[in-house]
Amino acid sequence: MKSMEDDLVTRGAPMSVLTLHAQHIMEPYEDARFALPPKFRYWSIPHTHDFYEIFLVAAGTVTHIVNNVKQALPAGTMVFVRPHDVHSFEKNGNGDMCYMNVNFRASTVLHAFDYLGSGFKPERLSEPALPPVLSVSPEEIEHTLGLYKRTVSLLAGSTSADTTPVRAFLMEMLLRYFYPQTQRTDMAGPGWLFELLEEMDGEISLAEGLAKMQRRSPVSPEHLCRTMKKHLGKSPTEWINERRLRAAAFRLRAGTDDIAAICYDVGFNSLSYFYTLFCKQYGMSPSVYRRSGQRNEQPKWL
């Protein structure tokens, strides 16, 4: 398998967008190229390619600029990039961002669409102006990265002509995340929504909570609620509480601050309510979570 240093790219698309070709990043016998960089450093240049790409943010956050739309992608975001999409990435903040990236030959994906039949409705993935963007749980991040690792291991121990591991991985991704009956909430919402969520996704903003979100929103509270439920599958309050719990979980792992202090710092006004939501989200109390060294936010083998 060729390294990124060996990748050949061509210029010539409008606005000097780089064009990547499958034949230059994959060997002739390969159906896909797997990449799991330990960290995303800074940014990538705008590019397009003649292959499909599945991108999963495993930890941290990143800004995705795709087809002239900017999206804030938190941990647990999966993107299905099509051959005609023009996109790039920018790192958010000073924290590390870890991700999984798999590139599939267009012919491999199209064969999978044909095999799955008309009920799969591949036009849902290919026709929208923006690529499908899904939100997956910490458990699903672990599952997907584990499947990735097993697939890479199978490829390393197989003959060059064995395409079964790659095709099995692709079918798992398509059926688990993109099949109509199981598809997660589409996050490809309006640009203002992602700008608002990016602004809110910090401990100070989360502590101010719904009042600040509604104040900073360019639309009415009712419109904001409808838009978030449509594109994220959750209300503003549910989204804020989910992010508050993540911030609390990070502080529980990273330090020895008093649990009550963490509760109030991230924006909860009731310690009992914080305990109830935390137990529901993580399956254990904050004190047990701290003692266990649970790593729901950071996959174990990254």
From TrEMBL:
SMART domains: HTH_ARAC. Keywords: DNA-binding, Transcription, Transcription regulation. GO terms for molecular function: DNA-binding transcription factor activity; sequence-specific DNA binding. The keyword Transcription applies. InterPro entries: AraC-bd, Homeodomain-like_sf, HTH-like, HTH_AraC, RmlC-like_jellyroll, Tscrpt_reg_AraC-type_HTH. Residues 194-292 form the HTH araC/xylS-type domain. It holds the Pfam family HTH_18. It comes from the Bacteria. This is Helix-turn-helix domain-containing protein. It comes from Paenibacillus ginsengarvi.
